[in-house]
Amino acid sequence: MFIVSAEANAEIQNRKAEYGKEYVRLQMRHSCYMKVKLTFEDEILPNDVEEVVDGVRFIIDKGHEHYFFNKKIVYGPDKFGFKEFDLAPLEQA
């Protein structure tokens, strides 16, 4: 479905360790094109799909999974912590 850049994976692993949660929820930021919101959760909801990538258990709402097809999650630090994770098409990533 999608891949995760080395930089994004390292940041996700750091945050998983900090929050101590098993799942990483991926959501699109509707106010920012191609920006991804990550939250850390303990359980999967009934309308979620689970994708395991590089050992990380991601969950995505079934209605939003199409945003992540053939994409790469990339990371670039932002001083405000708001726009750090982006989606890039695989052919451009």
Summarize the structure.
Helices cover 15% and strands 41% of the residues. It is α/β, with parallel strands linked by helices and 93 residues long. The protein has one domain: HesB-like domain (Hypothetical Protein Aq_1857, Chain: A, Sandwich), CATH 2.60.300.
How would you sum up this structure, described in words?
Helix content is 15%, strand content 41%. By secondary structure, it is an alpha/beta fold. The protein has a single domain (2-89), classed as Sandwich (Hypothetical Protein Aq_1857, Chain: A), CATH 2.60.300. It has a seven-stranded mixed β-sheet with strand order 1-6-7-3-2-5-4. The longest helix has 14 residues, at 6-19. It starts with a strand and ends with a strand.
Defining key terms:
93 residues; alpha/beta; Hypothetical Protein Aq_1857, Chain: A; seven-stranded mixed sheet; 7 strands
CATH architecture: Sandwich
Ends distance: 14 Å
- Biggest sheet statistics: 7 strands, mixed
Task: Briefly note the CATH topology name.
Answer: Hypothetical Protein Aq_1857, Chain: A
- How many beta-strand runs? 7
Unreliable segments (pLDDT under 50, ≥5 consecutive)?
none
Rg, rounded, reads 12 Å
- Total helices: the number is 1
Strand content: 35-45%
CATH H level: which superfamily?
HesB-like domain
Q: What strand line-up does the widest sheet have?
A: 1-6-7-3-2-5-4
